[in-house]
Write a structure and sequence with these properties.
It contains nine helices and nine strands. The chain is an alpha/beta fold. β3, α3 and β4 form a beta-alpha-beta unit.
């Protein structure tokens, strides 16, 4: 109930007023059945603007920090994310990554839409970074299509550190579903997971038009390199045969 009120009465209309979203390719989102919507991640606002325009409910895997913040603000944030059905995930890797995949698979096995950001964290500079293979593991284990999605403009509207968004018109693009049935049974093969992930990132890149950096976003943030040095790593995701 809270999700419906938030989407159609409170937050949804406000987001449409502030961002005036252009929506392209919404017909690619299936009207029923399980699927993964994999998108770029530029802003905190991404959690809300894309789900607000998709007719079906989208459940996101959200970082656990949103559920463990201190004080009144932390409790309100946690209550909000739980209220809209988001699932906390630990991003520390290893066993935590396996738990996150299990949580995503539970959503898909109920025939629902799962939203995920393959980069694993927000882009700190507006560029697109290398995708983590968890999205591929879920797609192959569940046998579901992946719908690539690009949100354009939210970085300008609300970059990291900005509390209130600017009134910037955004664009939300959905691509045709990606079918990875040819990789069935290879969910434990790293080469297959990497190929599937790179195909997903290539589709997102095609939709978003961002610069691509062949580096994980967390590594780029940790290194804190000047922009010209990072340019040396610019490339595009490896394009598998079916995308040639």
């Amino acid at each position: 109930m809270f999700y419906q009120v938030l989407k159609y009465v409170l937050l949804g209309p406000l987001l449409r007023l502030v961002f005036r979203p252009r929506v392209e390719g919404l017909e690619h989102v299936p009207e029923e059945g399980a699927a993964i919507i994999a998108g770029n991640h530029l802003s905190f606002a991404d959690h809300f603007v894309m789900p607000a325009i998709v007719p079906r409910r989208v459940t996101f895997l959200a970082k656990s920090e949103y559920f463990t913040g201190p004080g009144l603000k932390g409790r309100l944030t946690a209550a909000f994310f739980r209220g809209v059905g988001q699932i906390p995930v630990d991003r520390s890797g290893g066993r935590a990554s396996r738990a996150a995949i299990a949580s995503g698979l539970a959503v898909l096995r109920k025939g629902r839409l799962l939203g995920i950001y393959p980069e694993g964290t927000r882009s700190h500079d507006g560029r697109l970074y290398k995708g983590r293979t968890g999205v591929a593991a879920m797609a192959l284990q569940a046998g579901v299509p992946v719908i690539p999605c690009a949100v354009i403009g939210t970085f300008e509207a609300q970059p990291a550190g900005r509390r209130l968004p600017r009134a910037v018109r955004i664009t939300i693009r959905f691509g045709a579903p990606l079918d990875f049935s040819r990789y069935a049974g290879l969910a434990d093969e790293h080469t297959a997971l990497r190929a599937v992930t790179d195909r997903i990132m290539y589709a997102i890149l095609t939709l978003s038009g961002q610069e691509y950096v062949d580096l994980y976003a967390t590594e780029a943030k940790a290194q804190d390199r000047p922009h010209p040095q990072l340019r040396r790593r610019h490339t595009t995701p490896r394009t598998p045969p079916e995308a040639s």
